[in-house]
């Protein structure tokens, strides 16, 4: 962990939302921020030596975003970088060297995103560190950190990550488990549903114990819903300060694809959402929670 948060800077209002979120988080955890603007050169037509001549506006753009970032909190170290290539590929490669990648989106849950848009799905699937996707604009007051839970390594990492975030922000942690209901109205369907409910309650109890590793003073609440998981998580994210979801790493040709729940949540994103993978996130440093906490209103 190198204490660096990387932010995709593109000069848009959604990009500014990501910068604002990242700077405030950096201030609370003592991290640095690097703003990266990527000149789209997917076909390799632009040479390294000519980028400053062909795209002087790229440097102007990222420097303007840096001024904006420093205006949010001058105590945070902000650096800039301009790169060439496919934006999501380059951010994915750069994710190996940072603690967190943050990007903005104009998506508001109605499947008409611009800016990074649905390409954020590719980054969330392939990045080697957690990825935060921040939708622009929200006039509602947000409360609580929500973690979607399931019986997987990624689900457990999501719980631990969310617990750290909730305690750091002095927010309650809501552990949410939803499952699809059986389609048939029969005795077998009722039995299946009863087993699913029992399994959800057991998983919630185990997840509460895991979350408590962040501190016994953490306020933890659980919710179990007989509802499609993605729908339940999107609704919870509408008012949450942060929604944390785990996505199991895929391999081979499917590595660039998220699991179906994570995919649907990001397509219908309703608030700040962070995706973690079970095989890429080290165990959180719980000792960091004993350090002074800075809270931004």
Mean pLDDT equals: 82
pLDDT under 50 segments (min length 5)?
Answer: 110-117, 281-297
Total helical segments? 9
Rg (C-alpha, Å): 20 Å
Q: What coarse outline follows from CA principal-axis ratios?
A: globular
Strand order of the largest sheet: 3-2-1-4-5-10-9-6-7-8
N-to-C SSE string, H for helix and E for strand: EHEHHEHEHEEHEHEHEHE
How far the N terminus sits from the C terminus, by CA atoms, comes to: 27 Å
**Percent in strands:** 15-25%
Largest β-sheet summary: 10 strands, mixed
**Content-based structural category:** alpha/beta
Determine the fraction of residues in helical runs and give it as a percent range. 25-40%
Say how many strands there are.
10
Folded structure, characterized:
- The chain is of the alpha/beta class.
- The chain contains 9 helices and 10 strands.
- It has helices at residues 13-29, 51-54, 56-72, 87-94, 119-126, 153-168, 187-211, 229-237, 260-267, and strands at 4-8, 32-40, 78-85, 100-105, 131-135, 145-148, 173-179, 220-226, 242-246, 273-276.
- Strands 3-2-1-4-5-10-9-6-7-8 form a 10-stranded mixed sheet, with helices on both faces.
- α1 crosses α3 (56-72), α4 runs parallel beside α5 and α8 (229-237) runs parallel beside α9 (260-267).
- The longest helix is centred in the last third of the chain and has 25 residues, at 187-211.
- The protein starts with a strand and ends in a 21-residue tail after the last strand.
């Amino acid at each position: 962990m190198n204490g660096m948060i990387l932010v995709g800077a593109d000069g848009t209002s959604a990009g500014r939302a990501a910068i604002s979120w990242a700077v405030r988080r950096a201030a609370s955890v003592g991290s640095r921020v690097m703003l990266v603007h990527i000149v789209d050169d997917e076909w390799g037509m632009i040479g390294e030596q000519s980028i400053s001549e062909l795209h002087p506006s790229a440097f102007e753009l990222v420097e303007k975003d840096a001024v904006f970032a420093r205006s949010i909190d001058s105590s945070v170290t902000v650096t800039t970088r301009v790169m060439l290539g496919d934006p999501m590929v380059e951010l994915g490669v750069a994710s190996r060297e940072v603690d967190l990648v943050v990007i903005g989106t104009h998506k508001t849950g109605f499947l008409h995103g611009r800016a990074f848009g649905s390409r954020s799905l590719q980054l969330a699937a392939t990045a080697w560190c957690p990825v935060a996707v921040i939708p622009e604009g929200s006039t509602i007051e947000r409360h609580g950190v929500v973690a979607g839970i399931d019986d997987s390594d990624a689900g457990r990492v999501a719980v631990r990550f969310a617990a750290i975030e909730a305690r750091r922000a002095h927010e309650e942690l809501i552990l949410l488990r939803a499952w699809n209901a059986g389609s048939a109205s029969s005795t077998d369907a009722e039995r299946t549903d009863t087993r699913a409910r029992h399994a959800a309650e057991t998983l919630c109890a185990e997840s509460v114990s895991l979350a408590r590793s962040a501190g016994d003073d953490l306020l933890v609440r659980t919710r179990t819903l007989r509802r499609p998981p993605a729908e339940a998580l999107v609704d919870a994210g509408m008012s949450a300060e942060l929604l944390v979801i785990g996505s199991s790493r895929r391999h081979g040709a499917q590595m660039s694809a998220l699991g179906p729940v994570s995919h649907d949540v990001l397509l219908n994103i309703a608030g700040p959402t962070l995706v973690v993978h079970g095989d890429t996130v080290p165990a959180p440093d719980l000792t960091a929670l004993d350090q002074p906490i800075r809270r931004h209103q």
